[in-house]
Amino acid sequence: MITSTVDVTHELAAFVRSRRERLDPQDVGLPASRRSRRTPGLRREEVAELAGISVDYIVRLEQARGLRPSADVVEALARALRLAPDERAYLFGLARQRPRDTGKLATTAAPSLARLVADLSPLPAMLMNHRYDILAWNDEMAKVLWDFGALPPSQRNAMWLCLMHPETSRLYEDRERVVREGVAHLRAAWAAHPEDQALTDLITECLSRDAEFARRWAEQDVKVNGRGHKTMRHPDIGTITVQFETLTPLQDPEQLLVIYRAADEETQTAMDGLRAR
């Protein structure tokens, strides 16, 4: 029966039980001799053994007796029950816990998203990951910002370019705001991905080499800014203002699709001329 509110205790119990009953013992490597049983799926004892928790805990959980599993227990259950990523996220949500970093960080563009970036022409578009690494871009974005293909991969990072690359650091008219928003985003990403050593290394380098970054980092601001505007002093077409939109694909939430649009008629005319070159 569906009600206006979700009873998470009973839903958690029903979900764990349903995932246990759908598993074939052979799917988890149990011997064939252990497959003769009256009920479908795994026994509670087998789930407890696979998850490294007590049988009594599984019993109480499936009986909706008010348990609130810790993040470690939820992760152990997700592994034992062979949950798909969406199911794992759902289990964490029911337990009111935050999913841990799975270690599957986006370092290359998903092929379908790379094609989408190209198909978005004539709008400038690029694909980034949580730490601002630039994974894919179209020709229009390269003309507006920088020819990323001419840079070594280690420098294809929007934050690094803004701080360390001489020409790119002079591109933004309101560089202070761009840096402030970028630092707030990186702090949020750093908390969400504590095991990402590349992100930690990037932050450490920026702290040691840029005083403004260090000052903003010390302010403890956290914000994921997915929409806004930027005014840039382009070397070929002068001052332009673009609106940007950042979208997160459902199937690849670690990849960020960034799209630029002209904020006014003058910018649109200038960008049309740049594209025609």
TrEMBL record:
Gene3D superfamilies: 3.30.450.180, lambda repressor-like DNA-binding domains
Domain HTH cro/C1-type stretches: 41-88
InterPro entries: Cro/C1-type_HTH, Lambda_DNA-bd_dom_sf, MLTR_LBD
SMART domains attached to this UniProt entry: HTH_XRE
Any one Pfam family match given in the protein's UniProt record, by short name: HTH_31
Stated name of the protein: Helix-turn-helix transcriptional regulator
Originating organism: Streptomyces similanensis
